[in-house]
């Protein structure tokens, strides 16, 4: 339910940052995430937990769209690669690392202490946000400066109809208009834009695998047919999934160096397809690691072998997800928020759905063939980064939304 809230939350919260600014959305949403840990820690029944997890997910979805906007506020497009690499690490390193930590908390202290500790952590970061993160959205900063100037002029008796009027009020969309656009445009992009559709399909599949492993790992490493790990040791098995993104992150400077070289060759203009350079290798790592994981899941094979396989999956996951994120942002530029909202919506809907059939699939097909089935599906998706890298420019030229940046020379062919 938390992941389902993650799917819907960004679509609902994205307009608020445009209307009120990024800082209020961060502070209010993160405060709600912290607050909802309290009823979860005290929940008397499963119904309360389901509702509160859904609401916490809705609030927690704000950073999925807001953080990318903050990065674009603070860094120029061609300098945003490394900041986005850090952002991408949070969504691929965080989930498995959380399971490493919470496994022993649940085992030694009980599951309710997981929520108490989450409340402490989120509360600490809320205070940190309030102290250190200012407003970064340029239009909101200018509006606030103009409002302060008008107020000062009124106090000094220099006010007139022309000096105190808000000249931009007619240009600002109403909140109703913003919601109408942001609730409809992501679906339009999903079903009419090939880049958005295939990015969403690939992202959805990969995130679905991440959450599917939450159910599969306890079977492979903990069940009587597995390695017999206790709950805490099962959590440690996720270290491979956490280490993989860290290793891939260390290669980010190579990707950034290649991208900047292509930009220099393109007279300083963005080359979105260059973002997919490393994604080709990442896409190959994913099916290889899934087959490796599946066919070393036998109880007779040492447990470190499938964990090493999962680290390669984590590396491929990070590379592909980050590349797609950057490619969509660079390709659509002005309309990237709508395209990303469609990608995020699908990836989290799939992420919420995959765990529902994971246990049944692994017990019915067996650990080896269940992972192999996922590997075969991953093979079907391998061409996507290659098509984007070699033919992405032609695809963007056929898109009325992406082509606009060719026409305005914000982007150029390569």
TrEMBL record:
Classification via PANTHER family: MAJOR FACILITATOR SUPERFAMILY, TRANSPORTER, PUTATIVE-RELATED
| Membrane topology per record | Multi-pass membrane protein
Q: What is the lineage of its organism?
A: Eukaryota, Fungi, Dikarya, Ascomycota, Pezizomycotina
* Domain of life, source organism: Eukaryota
GO CC annotation: plasma membrane
Supply one GO molecular-function term: transmembrane transporter activity
- What organism is this sequence from? Aspergillus puulaauensis
The family database entries (InterPro entries) matched by this protein are listed as: MFS, MFS_dom, MFS_trans_sf
Compartment(s) of residence: Membrane
Specify the protein name. Answer: Major facilitator superfamily (MFS) profile domain-containing protein
The residue ranges of the Major facilitator superfamily (MFS) profile domain are 1-395
Indicate the transmembrane segments per the record: 25-43, 84-107, 113-134, 187-213, 233-254, 275-295, 301-325, 337-357, 369-390
> Would I find Membrane among this entry's keywords?
yes
One family name in Pfam for this protein: MFS_1
| Keyword list, A-Z | Membrane, Transmembrane, Transmembrane helix
């Amino acid at each position: 339910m938390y992941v389902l809230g993650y799917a819907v939350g960004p679509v609902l919260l994205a307009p608020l940052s445009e209307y009120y600014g990024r800082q209020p959305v961060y502070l209010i949403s993160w405060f709600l995430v912290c607050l909802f840990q309290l009823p979860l820690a005290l929940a008397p029944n499963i119904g309360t937990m389901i509702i509160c997890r859904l609401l916490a997910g809705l609030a927690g979805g704000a950073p999925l769209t807001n953080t990318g906007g903050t990065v674009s506020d603070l860094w120029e497009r061609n300098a945003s690669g490394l900041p986005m690499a850090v952002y991408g690490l949070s969504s691929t390193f965080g989930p498995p690392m959380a399971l490493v930590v919470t496994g022993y908390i649940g085992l030694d202290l009980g599951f309710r202490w997981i929520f108490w500790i989450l409340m402490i952590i989120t509360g600490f970061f809320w205070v940190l946000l309030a102290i250190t993160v200012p407003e970064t959205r340029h239009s909101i900063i200018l509006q606030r400066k103009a409002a302060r100037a008008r107020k000062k002029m009124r106090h000094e008796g220099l006010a007139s109809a022309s000096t105190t009027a808000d000249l931009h009020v007619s240009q600002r969309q109403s909140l109703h208009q913003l919601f109408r656009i942001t609730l409809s445009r992501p679906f339009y992009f999903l079903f009419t834009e090939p880049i958005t559709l295939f990015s969403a399909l690939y992202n959805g599949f990969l995130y679905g695998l991440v959450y599917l492993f939450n159910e599969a790992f306890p079977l492979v490493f903990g069940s009587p047919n597995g390695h017999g790990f206790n709950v805490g040791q099962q959590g440690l098995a996720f270290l491979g999934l956490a280490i993989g993104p860290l290793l891939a992150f260390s290669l980010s400077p190579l990707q950034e160096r290649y991208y900047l070289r292509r930009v220099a060759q393109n007279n300083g203009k963005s080359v979105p397809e260059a973002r997919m350079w490393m994604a080709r290798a990442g896409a190959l790592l994913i099916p290889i690691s899934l087959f490796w994981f599946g066919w070393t899941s036998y109880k007779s094979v040492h447990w470190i072998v499938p964990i090493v396989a999962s680290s390669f999956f984590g590396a491929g996951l990070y590379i592909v997800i980050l590349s797609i994120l950057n490619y969509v942002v660079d390709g659509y530029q002005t309309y990237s928020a709508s395209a990303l909202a469609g990608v995020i919506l699908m990836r989290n809907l799939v992420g919420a759905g995959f765990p529902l059939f994971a246990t049944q699939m692994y017990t019915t097909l067996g650990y080896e063939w269940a992972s192999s089935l996922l590997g075969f599906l991953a093979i079907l998706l391998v061409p996507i980064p290659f098509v984007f890298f070699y033919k992405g420019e032609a695809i963007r030229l056929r898109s009325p939304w992406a082509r606009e940046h060719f026409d305005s020379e914000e982007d150029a062919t390569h």
